[in-house]
């Protein structure tokens, strides 16, 4: 798992130096990585959210899945009802720390990747989710 680490900067009114915490959404539902795609879609529908934070058995954030990703997996020709979230998380291991600036977070994400970036504390517990603008 790779955290986007930054150096602490002095407080500044300039928005370039504001941290991702300033623009984060609540983490939302956190689910276990052994959950099936069908159950995850049901949880997502019940929670009326477009993403789920995926955690391991110790409650540590291991990724994020979106409704679009789950729907694509479910609609694929190789889909079975035994596919788990651990089988489909993006595996990027890309997370941001609360001290990361928004610009640094967006620069760290591979070009063309849209969506959300989980924010985790020093213990890899999910704090929230940052919506990316590119």
Automatic annotation (TrEMBL):
Gene3D superfamilies: CBS-domain. Pfam families: CBS. Residues 24-82 form the CBS domain. Transmembrane segments: none annotated. InterPro entries: CBS_dom, CBS_dom_sf. Keywords: CBS domain. This is CBS domain-containing protein. It comes from Streptomyces dysideae.
């Amino acid at each position: 798992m790779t955290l986007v680490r930054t150096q602490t900067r002095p407080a500044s009114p300039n928005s370039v130096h504001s941290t991702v915490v300033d623009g984060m959404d609540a983490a939302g539902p956190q689910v276990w990585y052994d959950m099936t795609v069908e159950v995850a879609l049901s949880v997502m529908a019940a929670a009326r959210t477009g993403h789920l934070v995926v955690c391991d058995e110790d409650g540590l954030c291991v990724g994020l899945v979106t409704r679009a990703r789950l729907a694509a997996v479910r609609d694929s020709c190789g889909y079975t009802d035994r596919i788990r979230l651990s089988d489909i998380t993006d595996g990027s291991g890309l997370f941001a720390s609360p001290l990361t600036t928004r610009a640094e977070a967006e620069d760290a994400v591979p070009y063309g990747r849209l969506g959300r970036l989980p924010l985790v504390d020093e213990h890899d517990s999910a704090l929230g989710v940052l919506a990316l603008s590119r």
